[in-house]
Structure formats: C-alpha cells, structure tokens
Amino acid sequence: MRYNQFIREKAGVSPIIATILMVAVTVVLASVLYVMIVGMGSGSADLAPLGIWSSSDITGNTTATYTFGSFSYDVIPIDIKIIVQEGDNQTFTEFTGRLQNKTTPMFLTGNNTDTMSITYQDNNWGANTIGGGDKLFISGLQPDTVYTVRVFHKPSDQIIQMTGDSSSIQTLP
Fold this sequence. Notes:
By secondary structure, the protein is α+β, with helices and mostly antiparallel strands. The protein folds into two domains: 2-43; 48-170, Immunoglobulin-like (Sandwich). The chain is 23% helix and 38% strand. It has three helices and eleven strands, in the order αααβββββββββββ. Strands 1, 2, 3, 4, 5, 6, 7, 8, 9, 10 and 11 form an eleven-stranded mixed beta sheet that branches. A hairpin with a 4-residue loop joins strand 9 (146-153) and strand 10 (158-164). The chain is elongated, with a radius of gyration of 29 Å. It starts with a helix and ends with a strand.
C-alpha cells in the first residue's frame, strides 16, 4: 500500500515542458542530419574531377588526336572548356549547347581561331557525358611546335588534372 501511495504522490514533468523538449531535440537532430547530407553532396561541384587521357597522338605535322579515358565522376560536355596552349598563345574551345550528333565541331575563341579547328567525337552517343574513347581531333596546328591541351571544368572553375598519356605534344616538322 505504501508503494502505490508513493507513486501517486510523485509529481512528473509538465506535459507542456515535455512537448517543448521533444520538439527541440527533433529540430537539433534534423539540423545535424541536414548539415551532414549537404556537406557530402556538394563536393562534386566544388572540386574538379580527375581525368585520364587514354592517348595523345600526332597524326600529321598540323594535326593531333586526344582520346579521353575516364573521369572520377560524370562530366557533361557543356561543363568543360578545352585550352590549347602554344607558348603564351591560348586557344579556348567550348560547347555552346547540347551535342547535336556523334561528331560535333567546337566553338573557338582566343588565338589562332582562324586556322585551328577542334572536333569532339562522342564514343557513347546519347549518354551526354564525356567517357572512355571520346576523342578530340585538333587541326590547324603549326608544324614542329609544342602544344599543351588542358581541360577546364567550368562548374568548379578549375583545370582538371589529366593523367595517363601526356597533355603536351610536339607536331612533326
């Protein structure tokens, strides 16, 4: 009898205070979870992917072909800019829109735009991502000249570090 009397006389936490505490704990947990998820998801836009050149070939004294390998995450063609550099001269190329077909000429700006042309060939047409086997055909290069080709990732505003075959080539004399 004493035990039942003890329980009835013991006062608990007010239902209003209990509700406020439960809501506060829920808000804190939801905030922590949101910060964790947003922090994990934003990494791809902040950092440029890593990429691989499968090959870089001299195909003549004024032409070269670069073959893409893979990237650390999906890269769509409209998100890149190709930079062809010879000494202090740079020629920039980029896609002005979605790929229209398997072979797409690229729009050029910068130096040598009147002589140089770059065409992108999509090995996996329709995927709208740059992948293994996709090629850059560069023509209008100067004979016996060293060129460096770089891939610029526009969303991260960074140069993509390309490993594998060399980014630099020297055309034939």
